[in-house]
Design goal:
Layout: H1 12-31, H2 48-54, H3 59-72, H4 88-101, H5 107-114, H6 122-138, H7 140-157, H8 161-174, H9 182-185, H10 187-194, H11 198-211, H12 217-241
Amino acid sequence: MRDVRPLSHVSAPVLALLVAGLLLQIGLHMAMPHPRARAPDLLPPPATAMLRLASLGEPIALAKVLMLELQAFDYRSGSKVPYKDLDYTRVEAWLARILELDPEGQYPLLAASRLYAEVPDEARARSMLDFVYRQYLLDPNRRWPWLAHATFLAKYRLKDIALALSYADALQKYTTAKNVPAWAITMGIFIREDLNELETERVMIGGMIASGRITDPSELRFLDGRLHEIEERLKKGAANKKP
């Protein structure tokens, strides 16, 4: 074992030089500007094949790392890049790549619908809602919660009833799993009521009851009551139109 000399054996000039070097290093570090993330610094993602190769057989693990990196991008080095300033074409590309690596992952669509789609920028919000819709169509029975949230955003935040109705109709048409709650596939009914489309609403409710997709007794009672209510309103409307 080598002998270790005590600090007192180091000559004063050498010790002074070491202290000066340390102080210089600290001074340079404090004087240099800290690197800050900027919106243009978000680069396009690599091709999926390249990412799979880089994952070394663990694409799901890589997907989780990439998602954390993407979400943390705007907080690097203490800076904050507002979501609305990001290049959403690149954000969508990263989210799509991550979903390709981990198709069953839910976090990318959660971030898309609850973070990136809720920015105070209508164009960016619409593009992200459209992204959620396209991704939903690839796996409706697993990704329906995010399109349901997109439907709410389209109706209440964007005030775009037509867009909300198109999403709600997609939920009703393509979501077929039995464990999906009735409220998710009946959203179009209530949107149509806002549009005063009672006849279409009546047909939709009747079709849902007859299809057997709704099995919960309380949900069936609710829909049946709703159907009778609409029929009564239609009868009154027809009676009022008679001369």
